[in-house]
Design goal:
The complex is a heterodimer of chains A (about 290) and B (about 325). Chain A is built from 15 helices and no strands. Chain A has about 290 residues and is mainly α. The N terminus of chain B is likely disordered. Chain B has about 325 residues and is mainly alpha-helical. Helices cover about 70% and strands about 0% of the residues of chain B. Chain B is globular, with a radius of gyration of 25 Å. Classes of the chains: A mainly alpha (about 290), B mainly alpha (about 325). The interface between A and B is large, with 108 and 121 residues.
Chain lengths: ~290, ~325
Amino acid sequence: MKSAIRLTRTDRVFHLFIDASLILFLAILFIPIWSTIALSFRPNDFIGSALDGMLLAPWKWSTAAYKALLGHKAFITSTFNSFRIFFEGIAAALFFTVPLAYALSIKTLPGRKLLYVLVIIPYLFNVGLIPNYLLVSNLGLMNKLAAVFLPGAVSVYNTLIMKSFFEGIPEELKESARIDGASELTVLWKIILPLSKPILLTIGLYYGVHFWNDFFNAMLYINDSNLQPLPILLRNILLSSGMNEYVEENAFGEAPIAAIKAASVFLAAIPMLVAYPFIQKYFVKGTMLGSVKG
Amino acid sequence: MTSSPTIIGPSSPARTGAGGLWKSIKRHKAIYFLSSISLLYFIIFKYIPIWNAQIAFRDFQALDGVTGSPWVGLQNFRDFVNSYYFWELIRNTVFYSIGKMVFSIPAAIFLSVALYECRLFSLRKTVQTLAYLPHFLSWVIMYAILLALLSPSSGIVNDVIKLFGGEPVSFLTDTKAFPWIVLISDTWKEMGWSAIIFLAALMGIDPSLFEAATVEGASAWQRVLHITLPSIRPVIVMVVLLRLGTILDAGFNQIFMLYSLPVYSVADIIDTWIYRQGLLEFRFGLATAVGLFKGVFGLILIMVSNKLIRKYTDSGLY
């Protein structure tokens, strides 16, 4: 790659070392995930150590844990709530983030600097949990799904990534639209947003994954068990020693508790795993920028 | 992957005359309208909490509300600083912040250099695609993975220990093992993600440096030691300073998911303590005071670290 000069002996050792390290890295990444997946397919009559479990032969696999979960009402309700939080959260987040990022990206906008300062102050000065808790409770958001996503609906970090994307759109495109008599709103709607589809998708998924994963806001603000999102149900399942509350009696007999625990998190991670390739494509650049700019 | 980090900051406002300014404001009225909705969001969700933080100086009573509760001056702060837990909390918080840095930054640098030097395209591509995945797993899911690995009865780690004739360890409730689990699981989750910034910096190195070194007869090891690592030194300095700026954030979600009563003495950090004091024991004034203490201290730290970043690497955070 770097030059066409033939490799010396030490260089060959060097590359062997590099490749071995990366393969070791992949193994370290893979083993914990694999052992969780293997555990989720473990049948109730499984005998042997967990190491044997990792090599579980496919014909010995049991999907009892998945059947038990998918057939259970609490799991279905929580999944539905989580999807609502995911989509409503993304809509709210983009609704607040896009105009802010766009306003900050217009270099000639009067008052831009003030806007920037107003956005950055809460980012640098965090007053912590209780004042935010009081706000949500005073707004009457307790036991509303919006309480999970509204407090985090604008991330300064995501706003700045989007802003720098907008800044990268050539000024000439906007200028030519203006000459044709387009208003600033038309420029945003007809020129900027269509060109920004990749960043809107990426930032949207970024927010979405965050809302999907959140358990803390849900734990603080949602007490109604019909409104619980998945992470809360998962946490309850993981922390409980018996499964009777979560899995119906007959299903409970067919799969080990550990398998049900493992299966529940694997199911909950699926939407995230589906979204991952999309975000993965774009976030490297964005994160780099964000890390430098905050 | 693109070249070296770009720095984008707010440029100076346009220098236009009074008439031009008014015209510009009028021209952007739709933009002002749209962003004022976002600004309203900021005022409600970011600035009202700052206003609410005054209860740090009050004896908060739910019925009297934020402004109706009696003032108590610095009593809440004194209660915290004099409490038995103060030094334990500071110690644990700083321990986990620094420990995570010591573990994950060298690991991330190593990973990024290995990726940069790797010539097997498919291996490099596979690692690059998968390395960031754990970052997107929530700590609820991480907890389940750790249970599958570490459980004394069915975890594979204890299986290996038993295989070598050892006694199974209950990692998550053992005060000796717990800190290691926190540091290792954080490194596992975040090292790929932390490598991105180093990798980006590596991509910006001038390839002619390597060519010159190769012509001079430098081995691959020497190139890494004398070109690659020195080239990304500013970024390493920046990442370390950024992390030092958030030293009081030791990772609430992680500790909260993993800890339990037997390990409180080595696990409790400022944020988990705030949660328990505030929302389990309803000592709102005290919990807010601790949050404010942390916020002010964090603000100072981040300003100082930003100053140092500007000084040493000519880029800034804001």
